[in-house]
Each structure stands twice: as structure tokens, then as C-alpha cells.
Amino acid sequence: MSAARIRQRLLAAVFAFTMLGAVALAFAVDNTPQFADPVLQARYYGLTHELRCMQCQSEALADSNVGLAADLRMEVHKLIESGKSDVEIRDFMVARYSEFILLRPRMSLRNLWLWAAPGLLLIAGIVVALRVLRRRAQLPISDDEVS
User: Which of 64, 97, 90 is CA-nearest to residue 76?
Assistant: First the structure.
């Protein structure tokens, strides 16, 4: 096979993958109606990026293209239209789907250990490392080890 033929097939493959990516992006478009007021649109944008898709569980509502996420985006849109505040909308979603719907969970006594665990584990690791190093420093050096 000639070099020109290989290059032509490679370019065709790159073009095909680019078009597949463009088609996938077209399906991820948020089809909820835009707000006329830019302040309301900014609130909508912020809320849909703070709430988790309950089906995907690792994506924000704004980034997910599954049907449930579209329904939840529409629900957020309706709540904003009805005059609810951001706090009321978050509280409504938490009451309906639990704290798991928040991408950044609220700090409370119930989940305080989640916030404190990294720091406590780091301190425990440092203490253990210091104790091991001190004990090793106190061990005598035998003649066999010195060369």
C-alpha cells in the first residue's frame, strides 16, 4: 500500500472520529428554554452545575444528556420561573433526592467526619512515620552491616 493511500485513509478516519464527536455534542445540548433575563439564566446555569445527575452520578445536571437530567433541568427552570430562591430550590431537590444530589455536600454534624477525615489521616500518618523513624534511629548498628 502506498504512502499516499495510507495518508488518505488516516485522514478519513480522523474526519470520521471528529464527526462522531460533533454528533455526540449535539445530543448534549440543553434544550430547556432560555430565560430572557440574564440574571435568571445565570442562576439556572449555576444551579444546574451544582446539582448531580441522579442517573449518571458523576456529572452535573448541565453536563448530562440522559432523560432524567433533562427532566431535572426542566424542574429547576420551572422553580426559577415560579420565583423560588436558590436556597429553596436546593432544599426542594435535597428533600426529594437526599443530600446526594448536591455535588458539593453541605457541612453538617452528620457528615462532619467526611470533612475531617483527610486531615486526621494525614496527622496520624505523620505521627506513625515519626515514631518509626525515632525507633530506627535508636537501634544499634551491628558490625555486619558496616562494610
Answer: 90
CATH number of the domain where residue 75 is located: 1.10.8.640
What is the domain range of residue 78? 31-108
| pLDDT tens column, 4-41 | 888 888 888 887 777 776 665 555 556 778 888 889 99
CB atoms within 10 A of CB 54: 19
Answer whether residue 94 is part of any domain.
yes
Query: What is this structure's pTM?
Result: 0.59
Tell me whether residue 42 is in a domain: yes
